[in-house]
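# step 3/5: fold
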Amino acid sequence: MMDQAQSLRNLMSAKARALEARPQDGEHGGAKFIAVTSGKGGVGKSNFTLNFALALQRLGRRVLVFDADIGMANIDVLMGVRSQYNLSHLLSGEKEIGEIIEKGAGSLPYIAGGSGLSSLFSLSEEDLVYFTTQIQKIAADMDYILFDTGAGLSKETLQFIMSSDECIVVTTPEPTAITDAYALIKVVHGLEDTTAFKLVVNRAESQREAVQTADKIRLVTSRFLDLDIPMLGFVSDDAHVSQSVKKQVPFSINAPGCHAARDIQNLAMQYVASPDVRQEGTLSGIKGFIQKWMRRTK
């Protein structure tokens, strides 16, 4: 058996390999890491994440949802499934990452956060290397890894946002949601000015209202932060959404012909076709995620 020193040397070697050259844009085998967040709770962020992932999957993309909401993890609840394993089983060494990936509605792969999330931010150097090498194992098999983060400005949410390639900010036309979305963008930009954002307006009564909502945020981010944040799309205010939540079935599966389901599919098509908003020269993909994660947990 290897002694402890040799084991640690091997782990540090794995860390060095993980921090080597970044994959080229468009290179097969490098998942794009996307944080989905909101300035406040109650705007439908998790529901958006789930149905957006299913829409991307219907377009032939390989998608994994990581429930990264440390306080209100509920992706499995929205799908009406019970998770057998969660992140704690990985961090304790009981399971490897492939074993804690479960299938939800539409056979969507997901990882439940659970109690393991809280310990993710205080890992030892050895455990941190283990976690990042485990993430690396699945990144080659996915096109997108979506982190459904907590709402607001917790340190855990900021960690996921600033380690990802891109951040989708979900808001609604409500004034408080707009204000809080801008506040989140402002704080993140102040800490990591390479973070790339896109806006989604949820529960819009019309396309016009959605555009007006996004423009309010875009105006202040352009004026005060010198940021031009594109609007990715919107999702209509649709009674089928709340009905589907009660049934614990994603609305894009429960009512595929409803306005919200059509909007989410159009939004996914727009996302796949849209240009990359990441700044040239910034780290991206699995290499970027690992390096930024490690840098922020030191």
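# step 4/5: annotate
Residues 1-29 have pLDDT under 50 and may be disordered.
# step 5/5: archive (pending)
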